[in-house]
Amino acid sequence: MSPGHSEGTDCPSTKVEETQACELRDLLDRLADKWSLLVVELLGERTHRFTELRRAIDDISQRMLTLTLRRLERDGLVHRTVHPVVPPRVDYELTPLGAALLDAVGPLVTWSRRHPGEIARARAAYDEQVA
Amino acid sequence: MSPGHSEGTDCPSTKVEETQACELRDLLDRLADKWSLLVVELLGERTHRFTELRRAIDDISQRMLTLTLRRLERDGLVHRTVHPVVPPRVDYELTPLGAALLDAVGPLVTWSRRHPGEIARARAAYDEQVA
User: Fold this and answer.
1) How far apart are CA A23 and CA A20, in angstroms?
2) In what order do the strands lie in the sheet with A89-94?
3) Which ipTM was obtained for this model?
4) Domain B33-130 has CATH 3.40.50.300
5) Range in A120-124, B20-24, B103-107, B108-112 with the lowest mean pLDDT
6) A121 vs B contacts (CB less than 8 Å)
7) Percent of chain B with pLDDT over 90
């Protein structure tokens, strides 16, 4: 898989502080993608099969769900298990790193849900003022 | 100011859940921008003047700092005070909304600093495996 924006920027700097800041941006950028956080939240409840995830997120395409899961697996946040049964069964679960990330992102999700529209209102007021 | 990616997407949906998810993405996207989180963290320590911020973030340009502060002000996260003195003095501080956001984002920043390079290592291992 070639690197690029959709796979997240790798952080080539050798300065520790710059690398940390870059990795944090990279992580926020990844979570800000339309589907990743939703998938991580669902897997935080329990292990899901591909088809269960597809059903739970009703407007995601099969291709987009596949891509999202592959990125999360590549990031070490999600673990994929293929069961050798007929028909094949594929389970997805959070890794310990993924579970720790979900804990860390929880307060931000809660904040966002407790302040619905506050940023939008601030923007509208600002735009009115400068218009 | 015209809307566009750099100002964050406004969230036009009328469905509450979609709007919340969109606003959260929008917020993560904003924090993932190279400078915003850094400015919010500095203002979390204390009120800063423009020139102090400029000095504290040594590789930010004057133009980029101006833009970053304007976006944060538009989002209702930062408050700007112009003191009518000669020469003019401009102070920036977090609003209560900005302070609450900084609290909420804290665990994620801590997580990221405690797991340096883990995502990068997971990616390298994944890429090796699929190569």
Assistant:
1) 5
2) A48-49, A89-94, A78-83
3) 0.72
4) no
5) B20-24
6) 76
7) 46
Of the candidates A11, A28, A107, the beta carbon closest to that of B32 is on A28
Contact B93, B43 (CB under 8 A): yes
B83 touches chain A (CB under 8 A): no
Fold of the domain spanning A8-130: Arc Repressor Mutant, subunit A (1.10.10)
Residues 42-71 of A with CB under 8 A from B: none
Model pLDDT, residue A95? 96
Contacts of B8 in chain A (CB under 8 A): 119, 123
Q: In what helix (H) or strand (E) does residue A93 lie, and over which residues does it extend?
A: strand A89-94
Q: Which residue of A has its CA nearest to B24?
A: A112
Q: Where are the domains of chain A?
A: 8-130
**Mean pLDDT estimate for chain B:** 84
| A28–chain B nearest CA distance, Å | 5
- How does DSSP classify residue A115? S
Which two three-digit tokens encode residue B91?
Answer: 């102070």
* Complete edge-to-edge strand list for the sheet that includes strand B78-83: B48-49, B89-94, B78-83
**Res B13 pLDDT > 70:** no
